[in-house]
Amino acid sequence: MDRFQSIDAFVRVAEAGSFAEVARQVGLSKSVVSERIRQLEDFVGAPLFHRSTRHVRLSETGELYFKECSALIARANQLVDQMRESRSSPTGNLRIHALPGFVLGHMAQLLHRFQDRYPGITVDLVVNDAVVDPVREGFDCALQIFPPASEELIERRLFPVHRVFCAAPSYLGRQAPIGKPEDLLAHRLGLYSRYPSRDRWVFNSRDRQVILDLHPTLRSNSVHMLRDWAVDGGGVVCIPTVVAAEEIVQGRLQLLLCDQQLSSFWLSAVFPQTQRNLFKLRLFLDTLTDSIPTPTPWDAALAAYGLVTVQEERPAP
Asked: Which CATH architecture has domain 163-256?
């Protein structure tokens, strides 16, 4: 029995809650994963999991040793990575889940820079708007605007995500003007469906606060599709500046309600406390933060045109 491989399989199954999911993650058959767990259970002399046709959960013995085993695996992988770094370059896989709103149009250059610097690291980047648990789904980290799903996860803030209301001049030219938040109620709206604030819209200006329930005619989990719909004259949208800035600067979209401040979010890297690829992940996140100045280029572009006022914001250490 390879004790390290068996302990690694035990930690992975405990995290994912599924033998089949772990087999998919590591590229082995389910029977190989099951055999490694069985060998470890034989060695320990007690079952590590309670199994049923639908669920796999830790036994009392499994719960007792899970944290120590996961810390052991993380530390062992970190030591190997540091040894490789000291001799040449780190190698291995890094699996990242990320929001399309940030990745499309911005991530390619960053990945190019990262892989030039660390050619031995293979990046598996999954792009969609789903809210994932990086532990259960086998990701090294998730780049998201949502708070961590559990206390077992660490959040590293990367940069603020500001939102703006905007519409195409072709749409605004044939509609009632928009001078205050309440005017939005008379317009065709396209809204992102997965903001953490959901349907509660709070507008803050110098002299008052307005809270509205907005009812969109188009709701989507794609901010890029909302942007394209607005450019085509479909209506008013509220989308992040990371997606809207170029269209606003080029005049294809017009900024609305400039005197109103909306709540902002943070794009954060969320990852397990006992991350088996923590060393490689730190290299990736350091490259990301080094590549994106504060304020971000998209916010700075709008500030330079006098369209929005951007205060310099830095994530808490």
From this structure: 3-Layer(aba) Sandwich (3.40)
